[in-house]
């Protein structure tokens, strides 16, 4: 008796798995023979699938655009529409604020980038660096700032503007007090 290693691998496989099974797929001998789905237009199955895929892609892009416009409208409705000249409150993050500093800074909308829906904000100490999205500030009901009271000549970070608004020196004062406590 031969060992398994000495026998042909195909023969061993057939003995263990049984005879070769036929799946029912036939190979086409003629390469030009194509299954015709619709005999009146003579469109092959591949062409029909390609047309269906193109239609699905166009519908998807239309739906995506429609939903994006709908979301933008919901965003404006929820937060309110901001216009040039509106006074807004910009919250100052805790890391940019000292213990006695203001929670919000009043700013004035100077420009709107309608393509990206971003806003340029200015204060009496300068323009806040960067463009801000609508969810980063709150619109005030009253006009508390006017264009004449603003400094539009320089751009500063929110931390710098907050320290100028502060009565005790801002965030830098907090660190000066802490270092003095540690030194003593």
Brief rundown of the structure:
It comes from Brachionus plicatilis (Marine rotifer). By secondary structure, this protein is α+β, with helices and mostly antiparallel strands.
- Assembly level: single chain
Please tell me how large the radius of gyration is. 35 Å
Annotation, overall tally of beta strands? 9
Poorly predicted parts: 25-34
Listing every helix as H and every strand as E from the N terminus to the C terminus, the arrangement reads HEEHEEEEEEEHH
Helical fraction? 25-40%
Major sheet: size, sense and barrel closure? 7 strands, mixed
Structural class category: alpha+beta
Could you give the distance between the termini? 96 Å
Protein name: SCAN domain-containing 3-like
Region (Disordered): 1-32
Biased composition (Basic and acidic residues): 1-16
General description of the model:
The chain is 35% helix and 19% strand. The protein has 184 residues and is an alpha+beta fold. The protein folds into 2 domains: 37-78; 87-183, no CATH class. Strand 1 (36-38) and strand 2 form a beta hairpin. 13% of the residues are buried. Mean pLDDT is 76; it is low at 25-34.
Please outline the helices and strands.
Layout: H1 9-17, E1 36-38, E2 43-44, H2 45-79, E3 87-91, E4 104-113, E5 118-123, E6 126-128, E7 132-133, E8 138-139, E9 155-156, H3 158-165, H4 171-183
Question: What key phrases describe this protein's structure?
Answer:
35% helix, SCAN domain-containing 3-like, seven-stranded mixed beta sheet, two-stranded antiparallel ribbon
